Amino acid sequence: xxxxxxxxxxxxxxxxxxxxxxxxxxxxxxxxxxxxxxxxxxxxxxxxxxxxxxxxxxxxxxxxxxxxxxxxxxxxxxxxxxxxxxxxxxxxxxxxxxxxxxxxxxxxxxxxxxxxxxxxxxxxxxxxxxxxxxxxxxxxxxxxxxxxxxxxxxxxxxxxxxxxxxxxxxxxxxxxxxxxxxxxxxxxxxxxxxxxxxxxxxxxxxxxxxxxxxxxxxxxxxxxxxxxxxxxxxxxxxxxxxxxxxxxxxxxxxxxxxxxxxxxxxxxxxxxxxxxxxxxxxxxxxxxxxxxxxxxxxxxxxxxxxxxxxxxxxxxxxxxxxxxxxxxxxxxxx
Length: 334
Description:
Layout: H1 14-37, E1 44-49, H2 52-65, E2 70-75, H3 78-86, E3 92-95, E4 102-105, H4 111-127, E5 134-137, H5 149-152, H6 155-172, H7 176-201, H8 209-234, H9 236-250, H10 267-271, H11 275-288, H12 295-333
Parallel strand pairs: 1-2, 1-3, 4-5
Antiparallel strand pairs: 3-4
């Protein structure tokens, strides 16, 4: 008569599972809904052209309408204001000309900010109808995507693409070097495909196809290699941690749907140091502004790429040490 001595693994109580799932759902809601619900201008750079007294009056009116919403930068004339917009130093400009007052916007830099400036201009004009400004979009979005919906939705595919690459390569490629090469290959292929969809089908991007693809490819590579390196060093926990940072912080804090200055204080700046936010800013700059303002976000993406390669290198070193230690232990045993 045989006795089954196997013990069934103890399962956690249903109540504990429910609590964990509730906590995860709550975190997801906070991560995605909180930045959008608290969206408001915070020190949005805005140029103003006009006499010093008039600039002071407009600054006071803007501060009264939206306290802390704008960082005013006086400039010499309209040409200087346009140049500041095209250099991505400001999001727009107010030209205080008694004969031809004008509001300059750049919807390509952030349609939410452009819309906000237009609405604010209307409110100010209502107080003085004779001085209603003309609205000029200096750097508009493409005619095929005037709201910038395609670009705004681009952060999530970048993150998911990087996570998919890491998970797929971990499961289907045993050798570490193969995983790294596979991640770089996927970054190139994925970038070419995503850029083709955004630029040629949806019409959401302009400028150089290869330049846009380069930004997207760098972003996917930075995310996937970082996740691969974390998994190599820390196992599944490292992969989960990296994916959570990219998805729960990087995506909602990217500012692609509005602008970094529209996010809660400090969080917009944090988002620009994560791959999705840096990718969004760099892509706007390369696609619509001839690369102006792309320097820092490209450096951020390059730093993440190097971090990913470094983590993979550390993981490879650790793996070799583990294999060597096991070989020595086996030799001693024999």
